[in-house]
Design brief:
Layout (H helix, E strand, L loop, with lengths): L1 H22 L6 H37 L1 E17 L2 E12 L2 E8 L1 H7 L4 E6 L7 E4 L16 H4 L1 H23 L9 H42 L1 E12 L11 E7 L2 E4 L5 H5 L7 E6 L7 E4 L8
Antiparallel strand pairs: 1-2, 1-4, 2-3, 4-5, 6-7, 6-9, 7-8, 9-10
Length: 311
Protein backbone atom coordinates (compact mmCIF):
# COMPACT_ATOMS: atom_id res chain seq x y z
CA UNK A 1 0.00 0.00 0.00
CA UNK A 2 2.85 2.38 0.85
CA UNK A 3 4.52 1.62 -2.49
CA UNK A 4 1.25 2.32 -4.31
CA UNK A 5 0.94 5.68 -2.52
CA UNK A 6 4.54 6.61 -3.38
CA UNK A 7 3.98 5.75 -7.05
CA UNK A 8 0.75 7.80 -7.08
CA UNK A 9 2.47 10.82 -5.56
CA UNK A 10 5.31 10.54 -8.09
CA UNK A 11 2.89 10.48 -11.00
CA UNK A 12 0.90 13.41 -9.59
CA UNK A 13 4.05 15.49 -9.09
CA UNK A 14 5.29 14.73 -12.59
CA UNK A 15 1.89 15.42 -14.11
CA UNK A 16 1.44 18.68 -12.23
CA UNK A 17 4.86 19.90 -13.24
CA UNK A 18 4.43 19.06 -16.94
CA UNK A 19 0.93 20.54 -16.91
CA UNK A 20 2.13 23.76 -15.25
CA UNK A 21 4.93 24.21 -17.78
CA UNK A 22 2.55 23.51 -20.64
CA UNK A 23 0.10 26.26 -19.67
CA UNK A 24 2.77 28.80 -18.75
CA UNK A 25 4.66 31.18 -21.03
CA UNK A 26 7.93 29.30 -20.50
CA UNK A 27 7.78 27.93 -24.06
CA UNK A 28 5.98 29.93 -26.77
CA UNK A 29 5.77 26.96 -29.15
CA UNK A 30 2.12 25.97 -29.21
CA UNK A 31 2.74 22.36 -30.25
CA UNK A 32 5.24 21.88 -27.44
CA UNK A 33 2.88 23.44 -24.93
CA UNK A 34 -0.02 21.18 -25.98
CA UNK A 35 2.26 18.14 -25.80
CA UNK A 36 3.35 19.02 -22.28
CA UNK A 37 -0.24 19.60 -21.19
CA UNK A 38 -1.22 16.21 -22.64
CA UNK A 39 1.66 14.37 -20.96
CA UNK A 40 0.94 16.16 -17.69
CA UNK A 41 -2.75 15.26 -17.85
CA UNK A 42 -1.87 11.61 -18.54
CA UNK A 43 0.42 11.40 -15.53
CA UNK A 44 -2.19 13.06 -13.31
CA UNK A 45 -4.84 10.59 -14.51
CA UNK A 46 -2.58 7.62 -13.73
CA UNK A 47 -1.88 9.06 -10.28
CA UNK A 48 -5.59 9.54 -9.55
CA UNK A 49 -6.43 6.00 -10.71
CA UNK A 50 -3.63 4.59 -8.57
CA UNK A 51 -4.94 6.44 -5.52
CA UNK A 52 -8.49 5.30 -6.30
CA UNK A 53 -7.35 1.67 -6.39
CA UNK A 54 -5.52 2.18 -3.10
CA UNK A 55 -8.63 3.66 -1.50
CA UNK A 56 -10.69 0.72 -2.80
CA UNK A 57 -8.31 -1.72 -1.16
CA UNK A 58 -8.37 0.23 2.11
CA UNK A 59 -12.18 0.19 2.15
CA UNK A 60 -12.18 -3.52 1.40
CA UNK A 61 -9.74 -4.19 4.23
CA UNK A 62 -11.89 -2.10 6.57
CA UNK A 63 -14.98 -4.02 5.49
CA UNK A 64 -13.25 -7.33 6.21
CA UNK A 65 -12.16 -6.04 9.61
CA UNK A 66 -15.41 -4.44 10.78
CA UNK A 67 -18.10 -6.00 8.58
CA UNK A 68 -20.46 -8.83 9.42
CA UNK A 69 -19.22 -12.21 8.22
CA UNK A 70 -21.73 -14.66 6.74
CA UNK A 71 -21.32 -18.00 5.01
CA UNK A 72 -23.26 -17.56 1.78
CA UNK A 73 -24.36 -20.60 -0.22
CA UNK A 74 -22.73 -20.85 -3.63
CA UNK A 75 -25.53 -21.02 -6.21
CA UNK A 76 -23.56 -20.97 -9.46
CA UNK A 77 -21.52 -18.87 -11.86
CA UNK A 78 -22.87 -15.65 -13.36
CA UNK A 79 -21.80 -14.88 -16.93
CA UNK A 80 -21.48 -11.35 -18.25
CA UNK A 81 -21.03 -11.09 -22.02
CA UNK A 82 -19.52 -8.11 -23.80
CA UNK A 83 -18.48 -7.52 -27.40
CA UNK A 84 -15.25 -5.92 -28.57
CA UNK A 85 -14.24 -5.63 -32.23
CA UNK A 86 -16.79 -8.21 -33.30
CA UNK A 87 -15.69 -10.79 -30.74
CA UNK A 88 -17.85 -11.92 -27.83
CA UNK A 89 -16.10 -12.13 -24.48
CA UNK A 90 -17.43 -13.63 -21.28
CA UNK A 91 -16.57 -12.58 -17.72
CA UNK A 92 -17.33 -15.03 -14.94
CA UNK A 93 -18.36 -14.15 -11.39
CA UNK A 94 -19.13 -16.38 -8.45
CA UNK A 95 -22.77 -16.16 -7.36
CA UNK A 96 -23.86 -16.79 -3.78
CA UNK A 97 -27.01 -16.34 -1.67
CA UNK A 98 -27.78 -15.74 2.02
CA UNK A 99 -31.16 -14.94 3.58
CA UNK A 100 -32.61 -13.88 0.24
CA UNK A 101 -29.63 -11.63 -0.63
CA UNK A 102 -27.62 -12.35 -3.79
CA UNK A 103 -23.89 -11.66 -3.90
CA UNK A 104 -21.56 -11.49 -6.91
CA UNK A 105 -17.78 -11.75 -6.62
CA UNK A 106 -15.16 -10.01 -8.70
CA UNK A 107 -14.22 -11.54 -12.06
CA UNK A 108 -12.76 -15.03 -11.68
CA UNK A 109 -10.93 -17.40 -14.01
CA UNK A 110 -11.88 -20.89 -15.10
CA UNK A 111 -9.20 -22.19 -12.73
CA UNK A 112 -11.03 -20.50 -9.88
CA UNK A 113 -14.37 -21.93 -11.05
CA UNK A 114 -13.01 -25.47 -10.79
CA UNK A 115 -11.80 -24.74 -7.27
CA UNK A 116 -15.17 -23.37 -6.16
CA UNK A 117 -16.84 -26.62 -7.18
CA UNK A 118 -15.30 -28.21 -4.08
CA UNK A 119 -17.13 -25.86 -1.73
CA UNK A 120 -20.76 -25.25 -0.82
CA UNK A 121 -20.33 -21.83 0.84
CA UNK A 122 -18.12 -18.76 0.56
CA UNK A 123 -17.21 -16.04 3.06
CA UNK A 124 -19.02 -12.72 2.47
CA UNK A 125 -18.36 -9.58 4.50
CA UNK A 126 -21.33 -7.20 4.71
CA UNK A 127 -21.19 -3.56 5.81
CA UNK A 128 -22.99 -3.06 9.11
CA UNK A 129 -24.64 0.17 7.94
CA UNK A 130 -25.33 -0.64 4.29
CA UNK A 131 -26.14 -4.20 3.27
CA UNK A 132 -25.55 -3.32 -0.40
CA UNK A 133 -21.86 -2.94 0.36
CA UNK A 134 -20.21 -6.33 0.61
CA UNK A 135 -17.08 -8.23 -0.32
CA UNK A 136 -17.02 -11.84 -1.52
CA UNK A 137 -13.79 -13.35 -0.19
CA UNK A 138 -12.63 -15.61 -3.00
CA UNK A 139 -9.61 -16.64 -0.95
CA UNK A 140 -11.95 -18.71 1.18
CA UNK A 141 -12.66 -20.98 -1.79
CA UNK A 142 -9.72 -20.40 -4.14
CA UNK A 143 -6.27 -21.38 -2.99
CA UNK A 144 -3.27 -19.30 -3.97
CA UNK A 145 -1.36 -22.24 -5.46
CA UNK A 146 -3.96 -22.47 -8.24
CA UNK A 147 -3.29 -18.93 -9.41
CA UNK A 148 -1.51 -18.28 -12.68
CA UNK A 149 2.20 -17.73 -12.98
CA UNK A 150 2.93 -14.64 -10.82
CA UNK A 151 5.21 -13.33 -13.56
CA UNK A 152 2.13 -12.93 -15.76
CA UNK A 153 0.62 -9.73 -14.45
CA UNK A 154 0.05 -6.17 -15.62
CA UNK A 155 3.36 -5.02 -14.16
CA UNK A 156 5.23 -7.22 -16.62
CA UNK A 157 3.37 -5.83 -19.63
CA UNK A 158 4.27 -2.26 -18.62
CA UNK A 159 7.94 -2.95 -17.84
CA UNK A 160 9.05 -1.31 -21.13
CA UNK A 161 6.84 1.70 -20.28
CA UNK A 162 8.47 1.96 -16.85
CA UNK A 163 11.85 1.95 -18.54
CA UNK A 164 10.74 4.62 -21.01
CA UNK A 165 9.38 6.82 -18.21
CA UNK A 166 12.56 6.31 -16.22
CA UNK A 167 14.86 7.24 -19.07
CA UNK A 168 12.66 10.21 -20.03
CA UNK A 169 12.53 11.52 -16.47
CA UNK A 170 16.27 11.15 -16.00
CA UNK A 171 16.93 12.81 -19.34
CA UNK A 172 14.60 15.66 -18.42
CA UNK A 173 16.49 16.19 -15.16
CA UNK A 174 19.80 16.30 -17.03
CA UNK A 175 18.33 18.66 -19.63
CA UNK A 176 16.94 21.04 -16.98
CA UNK A 177 20.21 20.99 -15.08
CA UNK A 178 22.20 21.72 -18.21
CA UNK A 179 19.80 24.47 -19.28
CA UNK A 180 20.06 26.06 -15.84
CA UNK A 181 23.84 25.99 -15.86
CA UNK A 182 23.90 27.57 -19.33
CA UNK A 183 21.44 30.24 -18.23
CA UNK A 184 18.71 29.11 -20.65
CA UNK A 185 16.17 28.62 -17.86
CA UNK A 186 15.69 31.02 -14.95
CA UNK A 187 13.20 30.23 -12.18
CA UNK A 188 13.06 33.73 -10.73
CA UNK A 189 16.74 33.52 -10.04
CA UNK A 190 16.30 30.69 -7.54
CA UNK A 191 18.99 28.06 -8.01
CA UNK A 192 17.48 25.99 -5.20
CA UNK A 193 14.20 25.55 -7.09
CA UNK A 194 16.06 24.28 -10.13
CA UNK A 195 18.14 21.91 -8.00
CA UNK A 196 15.02 20.49 -6.34
CA UNK A 197 13.26 19.97 -9.66
CA UNK A 198 16.27 18.18 -11.14
CA UNK A 199 16.71 16.05 -8.02
CA UNK A 200 13.04 14.99 -7.98
CA UNK A 201 12.98 14.01 -11.63
CA UNK A 202 16.35 12.27 -11.38
CA UNK A 203 15.09 10.23 -8.41
CA UNK A 204 11.90 9.32 -10.25
CA UNK A 205 13.86 8.34 -13.33
CA UNK A 206 16.30 6.16 -11.42
CA UNK A 207 13.47 4.51 -9.46
CA UNK A 208 11.45 3.71 -12.58
CA UNK A 209 14.52 2.48 -14.46
CA UNK A 210 15.58 0.26 -11.56
CA UNK A 211 12.06 -1.20 -11.29
CA UNK A 212 11.93 -1.95 -15.02
CA UNK A 213 15.39 -3.53 -15.03
CA UNK A 214 14.51 -5.67 -12.00
CA UNK A 215 11.33 -6.96 -13.63
CA UNK A 216 13.03 -7.70 -16.94
CA UNK A 217 15.90 -9.43 -15.10
CA UNK A 218 13.37 -11.70 -13.38
CA UNK A 219 11.79 -12.46 -16.75
CA UNK A 220 15.17 -13.30 -18.25
CA UNK A 221 16.04 -15.55 -15.32
CA UNK A 222 12.69 -17.30 -15.63
CA UNK A 223 13.28 -17.87 -19.35
CA UNK A 224 16.65 -19.46 -18.55
CA UNK A 225 15.10 -21.80 -16.00
CA UNK A 226 12.38 -22.70 -18.51
CA UNK A 227 15.01 -23.59 -21.10
CA UNK A 228 16.82 -25.60 -18.44
CA UNK A 229 13.58 -27.46 -17.77
CA UNK A 230 13.14 -28.05 -21.48
CA UNK A 231 16.52 -29.84 -21.72
CA UNK A 232 16.90 -31.51 -18.32
CA UNK A 233 13.47 -31.30 -16.66
CA UNK A 234 11.03 -34.06 -15.79
CA UNK A 235 8.64 -34.82 -18.64
CA UNK A 236 4.94 -35.29 -17.89
CA UNK A 237 1.96 -35.73 -20.18
CA UNK A 238 -0.55 -33.09 -19.05
CA UNK A 239 -4.21 -33.30 -20.06
CA UNK A 240 -5.24 -30.39 -22.29
CA UNK A 241 -8.25 -28.57 -20.84
CA UNK A 242 -8.49 -25.93 -23.58
CA UNK A 243 -7.64 -22.35 -24.51
CA UNK A 244 -8.53 -19.91 -21.73
CA UNK A 245 -8.46 -16.14 -21.27
CA UNK A 246 -6.50 -14.40 -18.55
CA UNK A 247 -9.27 -12.11 -17.33
CA UNK A 248 -6.88 -10.42 -14.88
CA UNK A 249 -5.05 -8.75 -17.76
CA UNK A 250 -6.22 -6.70 -20.72
CA UNK A 251 -3.98 -5.85 -23.64
CA UNK A 252 -5.53 -3.57 -26.26
CA UNK A 253 -8.92 -4.05 -24.58
CA UNK A 254 -8.69 -7.83 -24.91
CA UNK A 255 -7.88 -10.63 -22.51
CA UNK A 256 -4.77 -12.52 -23.66
CA UNK A 257 -5.31 -16.21 -24.36
CA UNK A 258 -3.19 -19.17 -23.32
CA UNK A 259 -3.16 -22.95 -23.35
CA UNK A 260 -4.27 -24.66 -20.16
CA UNK A 261 -3.35 -28.20 -19.13
CA UNK A 262 -3.64 -30.31 -15.98
CA UNK A 263 -1.53 -33.08 -14.47
CA UNK A 264 -2.01 -34.75 -11.10
CA UNK A 265 -4.16 -31.87 -9.83
CA UNK A 266 -1.70 -29.19 -10.93
CA UNK A 267 -2.68 -26.56 -13.50
CA UNK A 268 -0.19 -25.44 -16.18
CA UNK A 269 -0.44 -22.40 -18.44
CA UNK A 270 1.55 -21.53 -21.54
CA UNK A 271 2.80 -18.07 -22.41
CA UNK A 272 0.29 -15.70 -24.01
CA UNK A 273 -0.58 -16.95 -27.49
CA UNK A 274 -1.24 -15.10 -30.71
CA UNK A 275 -4.18 -16.04 -32.92
CA UNK A 276 -1.92 -17.74 -35.49
CA UNK A 277 -0.29 -19.80 -32.73
CA UNK A 278 -3.71 -20.94 -31.51
CA UNK A 279 -4.74 -21.89 -35.04
CA UNK A 280 -1.66 -24.13 -35.32
CA UNK A 281 -2.50 -26.09 -32.16
CA UNK A 282 -4.25 -29.46 -32.35
CA UNK A 283 -6.78 -28.99 -29.60
CA UNK A 284 -8.24 -32.44 -30.28
CA UNK A 285 -5.10 -34.00 -28.82
CA UNK A 286 -5.59 -35.17 -25.27
CA UNK A 287 -2.17 -34.34 -23.81
CA UNK A 288 0.73 -31.93 -24.20
CA UNK A 289 4.37 -32.38 -23.16
CA UNK A 290 5.31 -30.38 -20.06
CA UNK A 291 8.86 -30.26 -18.71
CA UNK A 292 9.17 -29.41 -15.00
CA UNK A 293 12.40 -27.88 -13.70
CA UNK A 294 13.96 -30.38 -11.28
CA UNK A 295 15.46 -27.68 -9.03
CA UNK A 296 12.59 -25.18 -9.15
CA UNK A 297 9.34 -27.15 -9.16
CA UNK A 298 7.23 -24.04 -9.84
CA UNK A 299 9.02 -23.44 -13.17
CA UNK A 300 7.99 -25.45 -16.20
CA UNK A 301 8.02 -25.40 -20.00
CA UNK A 302 5.03 -26.34 -22.15
CA UNK A 303 6.19 -27.81 -25.44
CA UNK A 304 3.65 -26.49 -27.93
CA UNK A 305 5.57 -28.21 -30.73
CA UNK A 306 4.27 -31.51 -29.39
CA UNK A 307 0.71 -30.54 -30.36
CA UNK A 308 1.46 -28.44 -33.42
CA UNK A 309 -0.54 -29.22 -36.55
CA UNK A 310 1.30 -31.06 -39.28
CA UNK A 311 0.89 -29.76 -42.80
Amino acid sequence: MILRLVVAIIFLLMGTFFFAIGISDWDKGESNRFALVGVGGLFILVGILTIAEGVRQILRKRLVTTGRLVRAKITGIAEQKWISKGRTHIDYKLKAEHNGMVFLSEIITKDDIRQTEKYETVNVYIDNNNAKKYYVDLKSVVKEETKKDPMKNPLITVAPMLLLVGITSTGFAVFMGGAGIMGKVDYEGSLMVLVIICAVFAAIGLLMTAAAITVMAKQTNKKKMQQQARHTGRLVKANITGIVEDVNVRIRRRHPRLLEAEYDGRIFHSEYLKEKEIENIQLDKETVDVYINREHKDVYYIDLESIKKEY
